[in-house]
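Below is how a single chain appears once it has passed through the pipeline. First comes the sequence as given, then the structure the pipeline wrote out for it. We keep one example in the README because the format questions we get most often are answered faster by looking than by reading.
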Amino acid sequence: MAKLLFSVLMIVLWWMLHALQIDEEAAMRTVHEAKRAIDRAAHAAAQQLDREKLELGIVSIDPDVAAQTANLYLSRNLSLDASLEPRAGSFLRDPVEVRAFEIINEGVSYPYTYRNPQYDYEVTLKRPGVVLIAHVKYPRLFGVLAPVEWNLKGAAELVF
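Resulting structure:
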């Protein structure tokens, strides 16, 4: 009887450890996919030239088009709708929150060091660029792993 009880407890323990391992691996996949999406969105936003200023010889990023492009890239790469809520089939369950979206344009001298102490982020830009910080929550598969959330950061410069 003692061996049977011990065997059942060991099987339950093994299942819990297996579920924990699966959840941890899925969390790592989620953070990598989300980070790639943040980087792609920042890069796409940074490439949105302000054509009116360019005609005057000023290299600048169009803030409105850059924000729209960043949201478009985030929604397409993470299977989100226009309000950054997960669509059916998305690997996320909670909405993605854009915590910081900064456009560093011609008003500063380069190289420019952007600092955001709230999210412990610092990046040096050599030309106009975009900084994007988004909050992503991992949708746990099992209840074994504690809730996991990230503030993912990305920055990109205008390529010309």
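The chain has one domain: 2-157.

See the next section for the split statistics.
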